[in-house]
Amino acid sequence: MSLTALLAFIAVCALATFATRLLPFVALARQADHPLILHLGRYLPPAVMLILVIYALRDFRPLIDGRLNAAANGWPMLLAALVVVILHLWRRNALLSIVIGTASYMAMVQLGWSP
Amino acid sequence: MPQDRPWKSAFSTTLPVMFGYLPLGAAYGILAIDVGVPVWSVLLMSLVIYAGAGQFLAVALLGAGASLLELAVATLMLNSRHLFYGLSLLQPFSGAGWRKPYLIFALTDETYSLLTSQAGALDHAQAFRISLLNQLWWVLGSALGAAIGAGLAFDSRGIEFALTALFIVLTLEQARRLRRGLPFVIALFCGLAALFVLPERHLLLGAIGAATLLLLGHYRYHREADA
Q1: Is B198 inside a domain boundary?
Q2: Which range has the worst mean pLDDT, B50-54, B64-68, B145-149, B199-203?
Q3: Contact call for residues A72 and A61 (beta carbons, < 8 A)
Q4: Is the Cβ pair A24, B83 closer than 8 Å?
Q5: What does the pLDDT read at residue A87?
Q6: Distance from C-alpha of A72 to C-alpha of A81, rounded to nearest angstrom
Q7: Which residues on A lie below 8 Å from B203 (Cβ)?
Q8: Is B83 in CB contact (< 8 Å) with chain A?
Q9: Could you name the Gene Ontology cellular component terms for this entry (chain B) (predicted)?
Q10: How would you label B97-127 residue by residue, b for 16+ Cβ within 10 Å and e otherwise?
Q11: Which chain B residues are Cβ-neighbours of A99 within 8 angstroms?
Q12: Contacts of B161 in chain A (CB under 8 A)
């Protein structure tokens, strides 16, 4: 990739990110308490979060193609996700959940362990 | 808000974010080096983009050779939640003067959480220090990751799971705060449906777009039911 292309890539990503943060301040200042905005502001973020989880776990696809699992890292992924959920419900420490979950996934993947 | 040691006070406020951003920034740095992004670009992205999940996505798209249009659309969709952060800060940020553009630029999930949990009226100078320190932790973490990644000091296979773990933690926190099943039922339906009917590169866009439409439909249905 050329230098220009890389800089263009970074610039587009920076502008798109800033745009999402700036937009309400310039465009919606007077509609801040419109019920539709409040409705989306309340329900869209949690929906997006769960969709991101589903997206991140997409390699785990049991029973597709008649096999138990399509990707080798599917089970470690699901088990590590369970570790994160259980740990977070138990201790509610975001950093702890993320570090232990990631470490257990890395261990399973690097040791080549899968049921 | 202590008046005599404002930086020290800001530092202790941002400590939990520091412990989150250093390893997460490092994970991003390692991943970016792994994909082939030069070290200066790894740091530049943390300086001018400054978005956790957004930068992971950008690196993945860079590695996959995505077009600028795909990048722009995916970034806008991924960060659309920030639209709603801004809405609740319109009032607190008004009158922030020259600090306001940076406060808006640096509005990550974590900074938003810290600023909205400050007691009383928002102190703009202190909000600026908190935002600045948070970005410092992120840039330092990226630099650390770039250094580790470039030196290949350890086997980093699987470290990208940190992002999955982050999303799981944020979902659980959202569920705890909201205590309503609606958005999660909608997300589950849209996410799984997209998984089965859409090609992988349109998955995220399709699922989030469908969820937004369903939420709009739900809003209109309730308006008409109330009227």
Answers
A1: no
A2: B199-203
A3: no
A4: yes
A5: 96
A6: 16
A7: 55, 58
A8: yes
A9: plasma membrane
A10: eebbeebbbbbbbbbbebbeeeeeebbbebb
A11: 23
A12: 77, 80, 101-102, 105-106
Determine whether the interchain pair B81/A45 forms a contact, defined as Cβ–Cβ distance below 8 Å: yes
Separation of alpha carbons A91 and A102, rounded Å = 16
- Which residue is associated with the tokens 């995916």? B74
Which has the higher per-residue pLDDT, B128 or B87?
Answer: B128
Share of chain B above pLDDT 70, in %: 89
Between A10, A44, A102, which is nearest B49 by CB?
A10
Crossing angle of the two packed helices B161-178 and A94-110, in degrees rounded to 10: 140
Q: Does residue B30 lie within any of the structural domains?
A: yes
Q: CB contact, 8 Å: B26 with chain A?
A: no
Q: Find the domain containing A106 and state its range.
A: 41-115
**A96 and A60, same domain (yes or no):** yes
**Chain A within 8 Å of B208 (Cβ-Cβ)?**
yes
pLDDT of residue B16: 67
> What percentage of chain A carries pLDDT values higher than 70?
83
Q: Which residues in A lie closer than 8 A to residue B192 (C-beta atoms)?
A: 54
Whether B208 sits inside 8 A of A51 (CB atoms) is yes
As a whole number of angstroms, the distance between CA B89 and CA B142 comes to: 28
Cβ-based contacts of A71 with chain B (< 8 Å) = none
> B49 in a domain, yes or no?
yes
Tally the domains of chain B. Answer: 1
The neighbour count for residue A30, using CB atoms within 10 Å, is: 8
- Closest-CA residue of chain A to B195: A58
Instruction: Yes or no: say if B132 and B107 are a contact pair by the CB < 8 Å rule.
Output: no
Residue that is written with structure tokens 């951003």 in the block:
B21
Residue B129 structural domain: 6-156
The set of residues, in sequence order, having a beta carbon less than 8 Å from that of B100 and lying 6+ positions away, is: B93, B124
Do A28 and A45 fall into the same domain? no
Instruction: State whether B204 and A51 contact (CB < 8 Å).
Output: yes
- Contact, B53 vs B78, CB < 8 A? yes
**What are φ and ψ of residue B51, in 5° steps?**
-150, 120
